[in-house]
């Protein structure tokens, strides 16, 4: 699916008329003394003789986050409707980008079926408003025979007072690319597992790579066998649709650093022989969210021409029970030679990731960013909106800070050394699970650490909850795939390009 057509416009009465907008979107705030209008609302306010806040108050508007109030303009403005969306309260005297992003997203969702909107929220924060509109407008109707009204088709965003026209153009373009990449990830996640399996994921990745000037390589099951990728082959062995390992690279002429990305690509996770319960098993269509995110992130690195070499390593497998499945009790020899005793075939993500991590590390990257829908324990510990951020101390803290700042939400978590002993195996180098239930998210991280070179700055993002929204829509997040952590990876890459 695509983003609405995005354009910059001036914030004038004449501009509203010229754009032939159907709706003018303004922001409202919960101020100290009640409802306030956000920057950008001046034109609409003037049309209502400076009484727009009063009129909205009469309609019950308070300015609370994501509140939507629509009112007809009755000819006072060229657009027929004003849509007021709440930003909530100022935080420390200011409106945060995430407040703008969520308000813009809520407005875009409410504009489903509208052709064209004149968005003034962008006067507060153009970048955040653009992302919010583009992501909030997203719908996935690929599998519906009736497509319905369709999302908002066009958004005209007013420029903020600060900055030059050139800067605004660049901001709009970058925010549009970021939203497009999040949507690439969402589309992949939302595609059902009968259509998205290792080989078809690889085909789609190849098309994206070709369209964006990326290097592309795919290893099929025969090559995986020859090269000894025991983790990927073990997990993928139960499915009639064999596993793959992808390598997708953005290599600019002058790269300042080399960043490896690794994302878990289980196109469906039934648990295998250690079968999952039936309830909500369908959510495991999203167990390739990490793979989708890292693929979308290299595409983005190319579109934004980051001065970094960025390579995504994507292990793809379907975890199913069958006569050819791997079993609890099997010992796998992983890529690079370490052996793993499989005590639970449902702890499969760490097995495919370990192979991909070892391969990624062979290329001596400066950083490794790895992400996965890895553990139910992440959801228990941090819920559906905050991802677990683990890895090498310094890089972990840097990424956790960035993840909070993007609004995707992430919190630093430790990898306690003492958990390693719980993974000791009766016969192999390590077991894939412990004999107890506590600290499941950290245990998975401790397992992965065994495969990461000690001197490589590494971060592990467990996005099990946040990658897929099984509840109702909120802000710029609809039901289904969220695209987390694409925006975090983008921001970390930008930070590395900037700071090293
Ligand atoms: N894909 C699941 C984790 C998951 C759970 C993702 C809920 C999204 C929502 C993973 O492969 C898994 O099954 N993990 C097991 C590990 C356990 C066997 C140690 C889990 O969390 O139960
Ligand atoms: Mn599993
Ligand atoms: Zn899984």
Automatic annotation (TrEMBL):
PROSITE patterns xrefs: CYTOSOL_AP (PS00631)
Record InterPro entries: Leucine_aapep/pepB (IPR011356), Macro_dom-like (IPR043472), Peptidase_M17_C (IPR000819), Peptidase_M17_leu_NH2_pept (IPR023042), Peptidase_M17_N (IPR008283)
Domain Cytosol aminopeptidase: 344-351
Catalytic activity, EC: 3.4.11.1, 3.4.11.10
Catalytic center residues: 276, 350
Coiled-coil intervals, chain numbering: none
Main location: cytoplasm
Cofactor(s) for this UniProt protein: Mn(2+)
One GO CC term on file: cytoplasm
One GO MF term attached to the UniProt entry: manganese ion binding
Subcellular location: Cytoplasm
Keywords for this protein: Aminopeptidase, Cytoplasm, Hydrolase, Manganese, Metal-binding, Protease
Residues annotated to bind Mn(2+) 1: 269, 346, 348
Keyword Hydrolase among record annotations: yes
Cofactor note: Binds 2 manganese ions per subunit.
GO terms (BP aspect): proteolysis
Any single Pfam family the record assigns to this protein: Peptidase_M17_N
Catalyzed reactions: Release of an N-terminal amino acid, preferentially leucine, but not glutamic or aspartic acids; Release of an N-terminal amino acid, Xaa-|-Yaa-, in which Xaa is preferably Leu, but may be other amino acids including Pro although not Arg or Lys, and Yaa may be Pro. Amino acid amides and methyl esters are also readily hydrolyzed, but rates on arylamides are exceedingly low
Binding site residues for Mn(2+) 2: 264, 269, 287, 348
NCBIfam families found in the cross-reference section: PRK00913.1-2
HAMAP family for the chain: Cytosol_peptidase_M17 (MF_00181)
Function per UniProt: Presumably involved in the processing and regular turnover of intracellular proteins. Catalyzes the removal of unsubstituted N-terminal amino acids from various peptides.
Family designation: Belongs to the peptidase M17 family.
Protein known as: Probable cytosol aminopeptidase
Organism (species): Amycolatopsis echigonensis
């Amino acid at each position: 699916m695509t983003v609405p057509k995005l354009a910059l416009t001036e914030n004038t009465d004449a501009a509203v008329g010229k754009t032939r907008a159907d709706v003018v979107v303004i922001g409202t705030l919960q101020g100290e003394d009640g409802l306030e209008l956000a920057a950008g609302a001046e034109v609409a306010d003037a049309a209502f003789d400076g009484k727009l806040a009063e009129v909205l108050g009469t309609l019950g508007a308070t300015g609370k986050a994501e509140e939507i109030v629509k009112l007809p303009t009755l000819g006072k403005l060229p657009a027929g409707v004003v849509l007021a969306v709440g930003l909530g309260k100022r935080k420390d005297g200011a409106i945060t980008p995430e407040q703008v992003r969520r308000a813009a997203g809520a407005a875009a969702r409410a504009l489903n079926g509208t052709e064209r909107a004149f968005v003034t929220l962008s006067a507060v924060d153009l970048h955040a408003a653009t992302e919010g509109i583009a992501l909030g407008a997203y719908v996935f109707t690929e599998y519906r025979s009736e497509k319905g009204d369709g999302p908002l088709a066009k958004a005209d965003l007013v420029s903020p007072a600060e900055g030059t026209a050139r800067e605004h153009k660049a901001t709009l373009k970058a925010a549009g690319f970021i939203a497009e990449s999040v949507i690439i990830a969402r589309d992949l996640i939302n595609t059902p597992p009968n259509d998205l399996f290792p080989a078809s994921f690889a085909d789609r990745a190849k098309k994206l790579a070709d369209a964006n000037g990326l290097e592309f390589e795919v290893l099929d099951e025969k090559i995986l066998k020859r090269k000894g990728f025991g983790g990927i082959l073990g997990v993928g062995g139960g499915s009639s649709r064999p596993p793959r390992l992808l390598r997708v690279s953005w290599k600019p002429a002058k790269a300042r650093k080399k960043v490896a990305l690794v994302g878990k690509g289980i196109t469906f996770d039934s648990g295998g022989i250690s079968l999952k319960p039936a309830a909500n098993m369908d959510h495991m269509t999203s167990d390739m969210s990490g793979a989708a995110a890292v693929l979308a992130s290299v595409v983005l690195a190319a579109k934004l021409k980051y001065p970094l070499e960025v390579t995504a390593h994507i292990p793809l497998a379907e975890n199913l029970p069958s006569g050819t499945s791997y079993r609890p009790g099997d010992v796998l020899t992983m890529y690079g030679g370490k052996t793993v005793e499989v005590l639970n075939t449902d702890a499969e993500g760490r097995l495919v990731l370990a192979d991909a991590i070892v391969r990624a590390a062979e290329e001596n990257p400066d950083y490794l960013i790895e992400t996965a829908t890895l553990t139910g324990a992440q959801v228990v510990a941090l819920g559906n909106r905050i991802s677990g951020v683990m890895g090498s101390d310094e890089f972990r803290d840097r990424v956790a800070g960035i993840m909070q700042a993007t609004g995707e939400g992430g919190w630093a978590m430790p990898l306690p050394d003492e958990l390693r002993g719980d993974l000791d195996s009766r016969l192999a180098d390590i077991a894939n699970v412990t004999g107890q239930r506590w600290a499941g998210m950290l245990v998975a991280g401790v397992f992965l650490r065994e495969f990461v070179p000690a001197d490589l700055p590494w971060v592990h993002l467990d996005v099990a909850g946040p990658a897929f929204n099984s509840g109702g829509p909120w802000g710029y997040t609809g039901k289904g795939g969220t695209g987390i952590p694409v925006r975090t990876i983008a921001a970390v890459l930008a930070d590395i390009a900037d700071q090293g």
